[in-house]
Design a protein that fits this description.
Length: 323
């Protein structure tokens, strides 16, 4: 699907429609245009981008790849920004991503994504509700999209922070294999997020410092804002991964401690019953010439010895603080 927003600079009004709005527009036009390729065929995307916007074929290759790290690349008449946003159905830390490519020029914005992007849909809704001033240009629309991409990260990261606090309490009260599995999942997902955030923090730090004529001073302040938001999220995700690792290590330590206590109890029980079993084994042999077998009080004597041995061992272990 190809969606087009065309802003008539002379009349200060915009139109939302399809590919027909590209008619009569070229790179020298005073009108501003935003073309969004939403799950469109790659061949059609290339045709429009190369012919209408003169997008570099190598940049198009990067934009259309199924897997590519976030990047920022500058060209003479535009810059290319590739970011990773959460898919529309992502609502937890077990996320999946959509690659969002943005080509930003003096009078055009071209976006491309292979899956529905909730961030772009939100920007389009805000434009329809007159909550975004289209006349401020392509760079401002780019900022709005990037800000919405980052804003979708924040609730999930903050929810995870609260969940880790809950898991820390549960771990001390009732550790379980399910809890450990959940922590391992969080650690894996946070590792992926940190990698994404690290790339995006690095490239977003470059935009506010750019001297490109495609960015006004106000645009640079806007991109400084998204860079700071990205930096905070990158820092928070790093802290949460460290906390997750600490909880995993803590869970293993608690489990090891409990296992050691169990083994200590079993060892103490074995040590106590070992001499008792030895004595009972001797008197269980029933040799005819064993003098104790004929004794009237032999049974009670042996029982007394068993009790004394067991009691003596318990007192010894108590003094050694083993129990």
């Amino acid at each position: 699907m190809i969606r087009v927003l065309r802003f008539n600079t002379a009349e200060q009004r915009y139109e939302l429609g399809g590919e027909e709005l590209l008619g009569g527009w070229d790179l020298d036009s005073n009108d501003m245009i935003w073309v969004d390729f939403d799950q469109e065929s790659k061949s059609r995307e290339r045709d429009v981008m190369e012919q209408q916007f003169q997008i570099n074929p190598l940049a198009l290759d990067d934009a259309q790849r199924d897997r590519h790290p976030p990047k920022l690349e500058w060209f003479r008449n535009y810059f290319f920004l590739l970011l990773k946003g959460f898919t529309a159905d992502t609502d937890s830390i077990e996320f999946s991503v959509v690659h969002i490519s943005l080509f930003v020029g003096r009078n055009f914005l071209v976006t491309r994504h292979a899956m529905t992007s909730a961030s772009i849909e939100k920007v389009l809704d805000h434009i329809g509700g007159n909550r975004i001033d289209v006349s401020r240009g392509p760079a401002h629309l780019c900022y709005k999209i990037v800000r919405n991409i980052i804003d979708r990260y924040a609730p999930i990261i903050l929810a995870l922070e609260a969940r880790l606090d809950e898991l820390e309490e549960h771990m001390l009260e009732a550790p379980s294999d399910d809890l450990l599995a959940e922590l391992v999942t969080y650690n894996s997902q946070l590792k992926k997020l940190r990698r994404i955030f690290g790339y995006q923090q690095a490239i977003l730090s470059e935009l506010p410092r750019s001297e490109s004529s495609m960015l006004s001073e106000h645009n640079r302040h806007e991109f400084q804002d998204v860079y700071e938001q990205m930096e905070r999220l990158a820092s928070l995700s790093a802290m949460l991964q460290e906390l997750t690792r600490d909880l995993i290590d803590g869970y293993i330590s608690i489990s090891s401690h409990r296992l050691n206590n169990i083994m200590k109890i079993l060892t103490i029980a074995s040590v106590i019953f070992l001499p008792l079993t030895f004595i009972a084994g001797i008197y269980g042999m029933n040799f005819e010439n064993m003098p104790e077998l004929k004794s009237t009080y032999g049974y009670f004597f042996v029982i007394g010895v068993l009790i004394l041995v067991a009691g003596g061992l318990l007192v010894t272990f108590k003094r050694m603080r083993w129990i």
